[in-house]
Each structure stands twice: as structure tokens, then as C-alpha cells.
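In keeping with the milestone schedule agreed at the kick-off meeting, the structural modelling team has produced records for the first pair of proteins. Each record is given below as a sequence line and a C-alpha cell line. The laboratory manager (R.T.) confirmed that both were archived under the project's standard naming scheme.
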Amino acid sequence: MSTMSDLFQDLVEEILSRVPITSLRAVRLTCKQWNDLSKDSSFTKNHYGKEAKEIQVIMICDLKACLMSVNLHNHKDLADPSIKQIGKLNQVEIDSVFHCGGLLLLLLCNPKDNSKLMVWNPYLGQTRWIQPRNNSHKHRPAGRFNHRPAGRFYMGYDSNNNHKILWFLSMYFECEIYNFKSDAWTVLDVNTDQDHIIDNQRVSLKGNVYFIAHDILKEEAFLLSFDFTCERFGPSLPLPFHCCHEDTVLLSTVREEQLAVLFQKSDAYEMGIWITTKIELNIALWSKFLKVDMTLPNSYWFEDLSFFLVDEKKKVAMVSELDIETCKNYKTYILGENGYYREVDLRKSKGCLLMCSYVPSLVQIQ
């Protein structure tokens, strides 16, 4: 039989679970009990993390970073997925986002701002500004987008949970790493093959970053990793299909435990999604998750896919592509077995771009 204290605890949990993530910091100041509960790992796991029914994603809408919650479990026929905004970072304009274990690495748009990088934990309300090295701007031609640093930034952590940022310019095979503890950048000797081209597709999983890369000579794609403990690139890992540079290959994560890869061949009306059954720096084993036949009635051929995520329980995938007609807005679809297909409206705002899935964390920004 439940006691009053048990009921009160359940009620408090229910209240806190409905608070937008970006507002939790203010709620924690209300009382010590609420502060302790919101930072309890079991509460975070049940309401926001791996056990939660809702999938959280990061979107950039009108240059603002938004947290969106997607619930695919409300309706048996998936006809009306529940989608709501649960937070927003209004202070800065965002160019791109990279997610790593509950922390977000944000690249800012404002060329007048010397601090181009921000690390943000939406759940704890913590931020940290990081100054990129000046040479991250070299090789950048003059033009409309010359405020963007050349190369790309990625975040991970080593075996001691020390967070680091990798800057990599694949065209010139230049690489630097930033250590949160020392607050310093260090030049690395790149150990990748110069016949390899690293794609823009990249995700963080268990502290390491995984990329889609292409072998120019063999004309095939493979999986490549970066180990933040050894600070080196790992060996080439096979993908569960053969593809060329014209095909579409996207990476995603599943509850921060597995990798998922989407493949759509440029000359075939079929899409496939695979999930890893085992993933380490030197091994990748895959299992087919979903096959989409685009020759069926009411099906659709995707021309410019940019993002996807999967829901294992519902056996569905959510994919997003650029609207070719406007070249501004992004269309989002739910795909499932037996030809299930539906377009959904995530948010009526120009330039809304799905960036990555998100799992809240109690990790402190060092």
C-alpha cells in the first residue's frame, strides 16, 4: 500500500518530468529536494534517458538551438506522432551542433564574436565558451560564408572521462585537439590515408567519434573512428553494403548504445537501415533493421536526406530531407514496415533542420 510520502514523491517526479529541460535549472533553486531529485540518475534515466518513451532531438530553427521531444508511442497506427518543443537556447545564433553524451558543441554564426564555440549541457543549464585556434580559419576562401572556420569540430572523451574537442581539416589532413582540463590546443599527427575522403556524416558514441569515409581508389565507403584516449584514427570498418560516392549514407545513434546507418542507392528505389549488434573501435557487426520499398503505392523517393533516427520498439524510422522546391525548409517523414509512410510537421518555421538525437546527462562541464 502506498504511503503519502510515496505519493508525494511520485507527484513531484511527474511535475519535474513535465518541466522543459532548459527550465530545470530555475526549478532546482526552488528547494533542495527538487534539486536532488532532478539530479538523481534513476530519475534522469526514466524520464529523459534510455528508458523514456519520447525521443529527444536537437533542431536548429531560425538559427536557434531547440530541443524537441518526439513520441511515437501515443497511437497504435502512428498516424499522429506527438512532437513538442521542450527547450531553446536564445542567447546565440547557431550554425551547427554536435552531440556527445549529453553535452552539445555549438558552432556560432556571428563573425564578430571571437568565441566561436560553446559547450552546453541543457539538462544542467551549464555552458562553457571555447576559443578555436586562429589557424582553424586558414585555407578559408573569401566569400559569403568566410566567417565559418575551415574544417570541422567534434567532441568526445577519453577513458578517464576527460572531454576533448577534435578539429579536423580533411582536405589538408590537418588535425588539432583541445583538452578541457588544460584549456589548450595541441597539433596532432594525422594517421589517416590520404586516399580517404571523410564525409560530413559523423556521430559520437561512447566517447569516440565515427565518420563515413570514402576510399578514392577503391570507390567504396567505410566506417572510420577517432579514439579520444589514444588521440588517433582507428582502422577502416566495413559497412553492411557496397556503395559509391553518389549514394546516400547517413549515420545516427540508438539511445547512445548502438550505431545506425541508412543507405539509399542513387539508381534503385530501395532504402535500408542497419543497426550494430557490436561496435568497438576495431569491429563493427550489423543487423538489418528496416527495408523501405519505394516502388509501393504512396511511397516516396528521397532526393536530399540529411538526418534520420530509429525507434526500435515501434520498428519505425524518422527521416528528414531538404525541400528541393524552397531549398530552405526540411520535410520529415515516418517510415515503417509493410510500406508505412507518413509526412509529419515537426515545426512550421523556415530553415528548421534536424541535427541529431539527444540523451540528457548529469555530466558536468569541466
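The second protein of the pair:
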Amino acid sequence: MFMLHAVSASIWLLLWYVIYSTKRKECIPTIRRWPRLLPQFLDRLSYNGHAARLVKHGYEKHKNQPFRLLKMDMDLIVIPLQYALELRAVTSDKLDPLTASFDDNAGKVTRILLGSELHTRAIQQRLTPRLPQALPVLLDELNHAFGQVLPASNDGSNAWVSVNPYELVLNLATRAAARLFVGDPICRNEHFLETTASFSRNTFDTIFTSRTFGNLFTYYLARWISTAKKAHGQLQYIQNLLGSEVQRRKLNSEEKHDDFLQWCTELAVTEDEARPEALAHRTLGILSMAVVHTTAMASTHILFDMISDNILKESLQKEQQDVLKHGWTEITQQTMLDMKQLDSLMRESQRVNPVGEFTFRRIVRERITLSDGFQLQPGQQIAIPAKCINTDSTILPDAHLFQPFRWLKQSSTAPTSFSNSSALNLHFGFGRYACPGRFIASYMIKAIMSRILLEYDFKLDSEFPSRRPPNIVHGDKILPNRNAVVLFRRLEKTVPVCSGNDRSDRT
């Protein structure tokens, strides 16, 4: 009899827990594609194909409250902007950005490093304060890279040359950034450069596979996924190469090095951070996935924006000629600040074509009660719907229009530069942990675009119905079209340019 009562009590406790847990979840509305009577697994399985519509529907219906999305590996709690404003200064021990990034980028499969902010310290304490000194180094390497990457016509004439724009900028950015990240002579090692660029492609393709089939499934099948196998082999090569370089530098302490690898070596605090293999791994991850890939995507979007609007392209060419009267080699930090039109286009292009639907991804580590009484629970993953917010006409007038010179006017109260992180420019993150590398990314994009505008004419190799190659959408991620081909031709003389900023807006 006692056993019967014990079993009955256990069943009632289990039922109570299930009902209570369900009610707790239901207090956050769940955005579903399938009817509630069907299992949630169908929503998780179909998330990647319908993410943009689900996010938009959730935002329009629950703009000022949290809502839940059912992803393949997790529930994502999408929080409104006013919550992010409250949480912007919360420290990483309470809202964890590293684990959120690890999960979002299939860290168990791609082997992204977890558990250290060493790279952030290196960028904030060494790279950003050194930007005036780093810029000439970056430009010198970029000047060398253009000669290596952008081919001339086969017959020696000034004919059009076919180029994949994403691959072009990926290779330019890899070569330029490598000088700042690993220094001489490795930054000119062709195998290292190709491996770094290829690692970026393979890693992101593996991430897309993981988002489609789930982290657990992808983790166990990684040995049969070609991009994952290639990325793992490339990581091993870089760990051996850069790990040996770390050890060599330690044995030759009289040598002076001023690059990211050295800064991380000097700033490492824990034994795990200081391991040569970990330093090499971290350097590759930040160089390949954060700096190079982001620069390549943003620059490709900007190229497509210019190609689809000749008036815009001509106005930007005139600005470059006015700012750099004697050519690209006189570019400086001040002349980059003078590129107002280009900076505005960069910001507007990122607003309309961000890297994804979300930013401010965090794993909740401690219960947090917000001003309206809503509680964030430990274990929840949260994010803000940055694309929806930054394309909301109730927040930004005419947000549905692409206006490349929207951000020309600066103010002391609301800076509008590309690298400024704010509620109107959320895609670099928000608050205490906004992307620390956004300043060097801004310089790199401007340097590449400036050289192209001054010295090349460019056009699409084929027509698209919208004039601009359509973006590739994969789940809640947004990529520039990687199949479009652009024709480049070196300019023989100054091109005719328009004199004003008047132009039509694009919807």
C-alpha cells in the first residue's frame, strides 16, 4: 500500500511540474508556423526556412514584450529594445555573450574557443589605442594585396576582368589584416593566407549545416561533413604554425613584435589562455571569422549598392577625388573621417543588409528582474530583433527606404557614423560588449572601397530583376549573393561625376 501511495504521489508531482512548466512557458508567447496541436519539433525543423517571417510576425505582434522562437537546438527569447536598454551594462557573469556566440556558431562542431575574453582585451587595450599607428601598416599591406588579388586582363589590355566580389574582398581583407594580426613574415606566407580565407568559408558553411540539422546531429556526423573536416585540418595547420611562432618568440625575447598574436601572448592571464595552441586558435578565429569575414560581407553589400545606382557611384567617386586629390596613397586617418558619403552608405547598407536578424545574444546566468516585473531565468538564451528595430518606421522615419546619405548629418547627442553603436545602429552589438573591432573594420572597409572607387570602374556581369543581386537568407542569417560576378576595369582617366547628392530612394 505504501508503494502505491508513493507511486501516486510521484505521478501527481510529475503532472504538476509539467503543467506548471507549461504555464510558465506560455506566459511568453511562442511564435509558431504550425498549429499548436502538432508537435513543436515541426517548428524547430522548419525554422531555418521561415525564420525571417517568424521574427517579423513576432515583432509586429509583440513589439514591446518578449516572445519565443523555436530553433533547432534551443528556445530563443526575443526581448524588446527597452529591455536591452536596461541590460546594456550588465556584466558577462550574469549575461554571458561568449557561450551564446559559441552556441550560435555551432562551437562543438567548429571548435570555437570558449571561456575567455582575451581577444576583447587585446583589441580594446592594444589595437584600438594604436589605430593611428596601425593604419599606415594596414594601408601598406593593402597596397601590396591589390597587386596580388585583383588580376589584370590576360592580353595586357585594359579590358574588363571577371571577379567574384566576395572572394575579392575576402582575399584583400585577409592579406591586410594578417599584417596586424601575425606580422612579418607569416603575413606574406601564401599557404597561411589561403588557409585563413578558406577556413572562414568552411567554418561558416559548417555552421549553416549545423543550423539546418542541429548541433548534436552535426557533431556526431562531423567526420563525414566535408567542410567540417577541412576546417579541422586547417585549424591544426594554423595551431602548428602560429603555436611554433609563439614559442620561437618566447625564446627570442629580444625581438620586438607589435601584432595581435603578441598582444594576446602578453595579456594572457591564465595558463589555458597562454598555451601556444590556444593563442594560435584564438588568433585564427578572430582574424578569419570576425575581422575578415565581416569585412568581406559588408564590402560586398556596399559594392552591390553602388553597382545598382550609377548616380550613387558617381557621387562617391567625386567624394574620393575631392578628399584624395593626389591619389589613394595619400589616405590618412583624417581623410577617412572626411569620407562622409562613404561612411553614410556603409551604415545604411548595414542597416538594410545586416549579418542577421538578431544581436545582443546572451545566455542568462542569474535571475534578473526588469523594471516591469518580467524575469529572465537562468539558462534562457536571449537576443534583440535588431533588423526589425532598425527597419521600423515608428523608430526611424522612412525606414523602408534605402537612403545611402541618410546619415550625413552628425550631432553631438546622436552620432551617426558607421562604427557608432546605438539603438539606431544595433548590428555591432549594444552596450558594454559591443563589437570591439568595429573601428578597425570601418578603416579596412573604407580603405578597400576608396581604392576601388578611385582606380576602377565596375559593373555586374549579368542583370538581375531588382538590379541588385538578391541576398542569400539562411535561417536568421543574411549573406550577400556569393554567385554574382562583377566586372572590373582599371580607370585610365578621371571618370565623369555628378555634382550633387540628389538621387532617388530605393525601396
